Amino acid sequence: MNTSTESFVDLLNEINDGGARHMTEITEDEGTIDDKIEASVDIMDTTRELAQTLSPWCRRQ
User: Fold this and answer.
1) For the chain, what percentages of helix, strand and coil (3-state, to nearest 5) are there?
2) Which of 1, 12, 19, 48 is the most buried (most CB within 10 A)?
3) Per-domain boundaries in the chain
4) Each residue of 14-45: pLDDT tens digit?
């Protein structure tokens, strides 16, 4: 893989790991509703960050 592709894959892996952690927080029986809302907002923020990061990368490909 070239450096650009490796960076892209690293970014996706990082986001996937974070998303998995947040989804676990949301689906666990433990924790308050506020914790679950906060985890959901974190997922939305991460998704927005991913879109902003990928947009220029996709245009270059």
Assistant:
1) 85, 0, 15
2) 19
3) 3-60
4) 777 766 666 666 666 677 778 778 877 887 88
